[in-house]
Amino acid sequence: EVQLVESGGALVQPGGSLRLSCAASGFSFSIYWMNWVRQTPGKGLEWVANIRQDGGEKYYVNSVRGRFTISRDNANNSLFLQMNSLRVDDTAVYYCVPGSAFDYWGRGTLVSVSA
Amino acid sequence: DVVLTQSPLSLPVTLGQPASLSCRSSQSLVTGNGNTYLSWFQQRPGQSPRRLIYNVSKRDSGVPDRFSGSGSGTDFTLKISRVEAEDVGVYYCMQGTHWPQTFGQGTKVEIK
């Protein structure tokens, strides 16, 4: 059974940093591109970033490029999102999603950015 | 980026009656090799999104056959033949043809 468990979400002040983690199991993590997708009440679902199987290619939505860094640890089936210079509009539930099919989702982790 | 516009935003439906949800794309979603990467997701209250339909009309495993997807080019539809109480939630379309993948704003299905 595919399981995706996101963690690391918290309440943080604008300008702060957070590191999200995703523990994956039940599938061959190392052969999939991996994505972070976020959901806000105002903007709905938004793809944030993805990373190639070997970590050699990474892509970001314009609004987070230069502030967020996606990475992975294939030995431990883990995905990460380092979030710096956080803004109020980064407030969202963050999901890790494997592949391009978007057929498996975790429960997500809540990031709240507020003074 | 490709903009997906869903309508209506809210859809009150009587139990047992059909429902039709629309998703319109700002660009054609047909790839050079003829595939169309348009998916539909259901998000029940308090839950994560769940994919129902992919490639316009293919139902995911375990999805009841009262759900069907259709459409082509820029115009797509999700139909529920007879709405049940468990179908309450928000439905999103998503395109994977053009980078970056984008989602519609959602249609909220509720029971009258």
- Rg of chain A is 13 Å
Distance between the termini of chain B: 36 Å
How much strand content do the residues of chain A show? over 45%
Spans of chain A with pLDDT under 50 lasting ≥5 residues? Answer: none
Principal-axes geometry of chain A comes out as globular
Stretches with pLDDT under 50, minimum 5 residues of chain B: none
| Content of β-strand of chain B | over 45%
Oligomerization category of the chains in this entry? heterodimer
Work out the helix count of chain B: 0
Largest sheet of chain A: 6 strands, mixed
Number of strand elements of chain B: 11
Describe the structure.
The complex is a heterodimer of chains A (115) and B (112). With 115 residues, chain A is an all-beta fold. Helix content of chain A is 0%, strand content 50%. Chain A has strands spanning 3-7, 11-12, 18-25, 34-40, 44-51, 58-60, 68-73, 78-83, 92-98, 109-113. In chain A, the strands form 2 sheets. Chain A has a 6-stranded mixed beta sheet, with no helix packed on it. In chain A, a hairpin with a 4-residue loop joins strand 7 and strand 8 (78-83). Chain A starts with a strand and ends with a strand. By secondary structure, chain B is mainly beta. Helix content of chain B is 0%, strand content 48%. Chain B has no helices and 11 strands. In chain B, the strands form 2 sheets. In chain B, strands 2, 4, 5, 6, 9, 10 and 11 form a 7-stranded mixed beta sheet that branches. In chain B, strand 5 (50-54) and strand 6 (58-59) form a beta hairpin. Chain B is globular, with a radius of gyration of 13 Å. The relative contact order of chain B is 0.34. The mean pLDDT of chain B is 97. Chain A binds chain B through residues 39, 44-47, 59, 61, 95, 100-103, 105-108, and chain B through 39, 41, 48-51, 54, 60, 92, 94, 96, 99-106.
